[in-house]
Amino acid sequence: MTRRQWRILLACPLLGFLALVFILTIAFDLGRHDIHPSSLIDKPFPDFELPSLRTHETVNLGSLLGEARLINIWASWCIACRSEHGLLQQIAERGDVSIVGVNYKDQRSDAVSWLFELGDPFAMNIFDSEGDLGVDLGVYGAPETFLVDAQGFIRYKRVGPLTDQIWQDEIEPILRSWD
Amino acid sequence: MFVSALLVLALGVGVGVDDFQFDSQTNADRYSKLIEEFRCPKCLNTNLAGSDAPIAQDLRRAVYRLINEGKTDQEIRTYMRERYGDFILYNPRLTPKTVMLWFTPLLLVLVGAWLILRLKDRRSTVTLTTEEAERLRNLTS
Question: Is the ipTM of this complex over 0.90?
Answer without folding.
Answer: no
